[in-house]
Amino acid sequence: MGIPLGVKLVFSLWVLLWAPTYAWLLGPQNFFWLCNLANFLLLVGLWRESRLLCSMQWLAVALVGLLWGLDVAGAALFGVHPIGGTEYMFDPQQPLLTRGLSFYHLGLPLVAGFAVWRLGYDRRALAGQALLTAVVIPLTYLVTEAERNINWVEGPFGVPQEGLPTVLYLPLLMISCPLALYLPVHLATLWAGRRR
Fold first, then answer.
1. Looking at residue 147, what DSSP letter applies?
2. What does the DSSP assignment read for 4-25?
3. Which helix or strand (DSSP H or E) is residue 118 part of?
4. Which of 48, 61, 133, 157 has its CA 20 to 30 A from that of 71?
5. What pLDDT, on a 0 to 100 scale, did the predictor assign at position 64?
6. How far is Cα 46 from Cα 70, in angstroms, rounded to an integer?
7. Is the dihedral of CA 163, 149, 31, 80 positive or negative?
8. Cα(first)–Cα(last) distance of the chain, in Å?
């Protein structure tokens, strides 16, 4: 089973609307976020029907999207961010359009999951996404503004950390992302594939 043309076209339209709007509102640095990169990589994966690219982005966004949604829901319903990192969604200084477009965090896992369901899961995705993360995190640290804390290179959950020197913190971040975010999704996907 391939990816239906309609899915490719709708997702392409989304990226064509989202990318310039985000660039205008937040600047090109914002595209260093791994979840923002996922939009572009998934677009390529859909059109090429690449199991590897779609599987990598599935790992990148499945758990992140779930946690993002839980944090936003917790704040909206109970006034508490149970995880943290989505405080900007309730910041009136952030443009409403920016906050509205951020709901893609809920849709992206659906698109990536659909692609994996149609194309199959590529076991190499864990290594591929871990390698991509290991490249993006140091680049983020080098070329983005520290106060933006993109990919949490200055500290987890959007809060700067001072407990570890950067030379230790960044490698720890490069290791912890695959272990905490990608590996559980990888194992769950393999398990689900065996159950089918």
1. G
2. -HHHHHHHHHHHHHHHHHHHHH
3. helix 104-119
4. 133
5. 96
6. 27
7. positive
8. 15
What does the alpha-carbon distance between residue 183 and residue 179 come to, in Å, rounded to a whole number?
Answer: 5
Does the model's pTM come out above 0.85? yes
Phi, psi of 182 (to 5 degrees): -90, -45
pLDDT tens-digit series, residues 31-80: 999 999 999 999 999 999 999 999 999 999 999 999 999 999 999 999 99
Closest to 112 measured CA to CA, from 40, 178, 179: 40
Q: What share of the chain is helix, strand, coil (3-state, %, to 5)?
A: 80, 0, 20
- Tokens representing 63 are 């758990």
Query: The tokens of 62 are what?
Result: 């499945």
Mean pLDDT of 171-184: 97
Integer angstrom CA distances of residue 155 from 68, 99, 114, 152: 17, 22, 33, 5
Tokens 């689900």 belong to 192
Q: Angle at the Cα of 170 (from 150 to 185), degrees rounded to 5?
A: 75
* Amino acid making up residue 81: H
